[in-house]
Amino acid sequence: MEAEFDTVATWTAEVVAGLDLADRIPAACRGSGSPGALHWLLEHLEPEPGQTFFDCGAGVGGPAAFAARETGARPLLTDPEPGACRAARALFGLPALQAASELPIATGVIVAGWSLGVLCTVTDQPAYLAELRRVLRPGARFGLIVYCATHPGELRLKPPEGNNFPTVEHLDDLLHGASLRVRTSGWTDHFAAFPDGWEDVMSSVQDELERRHGKDARWRTAEEQSDRMGSLLAAGELRGRMLVVEPE
Ligand SMILES: C[S@@+](CC[C@H](N)C(=O)[O-])C[C@H]1O[C@@H](n2cnc3c(N)ncnc32)[C@H](O)[C@@H]1O
What we know:
This protein is of the alpha/beta class. The protein has helices at 2-16, 21-27, 35-45, 62-71, 82-92, 125-135, 168-177, 198-213, 217-234; strands at 52-56, 74-79, 96-98, 110-116, 136-149, 180-187, 238-247. The protein has a single domain, classed as Rossmann fold. Helix content is 44%, strand content 21%. A seven-stranded mixed β-sheet has the order 3-2-1-4-5-7-6, with helices on both faces. The chain starts with a helix and ends with a strand. The structure holds S-adenosylmethionine (SAM). This is SAM-dependent methyltransferase. GO terms for molecular function: S-adenosylmethionine-dependent methyltransferase activity.
């Protein structure tokens, strides 16, 4: 995961820095589904202009920059990987704190935010959710994208290293255990369409990364991880669940 979320984050920032601001967002969304899914979440989260919008596990900052552009909210990012934090600061000028599941945020201060494609990469999922719950203010709304296994037991294809995909039932138990109530939910595959140009940016950045680093073992490791994820989704072994939760 270090190759994927730290080294490749740094390389991505180097390539994406050469793009216009509008094209940086598609290139810097990793694991967060499509803009349709992000819009769906924002419509339910309703962040206000100027309000702090917390992105936990923000990666290189594309989704947070998208939220800022669409709503005028002010993102605050955390990610355990230093390369990801540096990338988000450099590409979007966003405040990014290096942190995993112990958040450098006071209790009960966050009113809106999200954490996209993160839970399945976390070893201690109950602790991660409890920490998210801790920072939420009563009445807050928080968005999640969680890749869920569509059946219990072993996946039929090899999963990416270090990932742990809950079933929907297990996810519901985890959320209940963290005193987070589900307000609404959906599936990322209902928002699979991309606007014109979005996928072109993603594939040209991918081609450039391949050209620069294709022979590097860390690139090949990260690509294998990403290919395994793609195969699991294509085979229907995994689905992306979108949730809006609130503290109980
Ligand atoms: C699949 S990426 C998603 C990045 C970003 N949310 C997006 O959608 O573009 C997962 C991210 O979770 C971060 N992460 C891993 N463990 C974490 C933890 N305990 N707390 C917060 N983030 C974590 C990784 O460093 C990585 O950047």
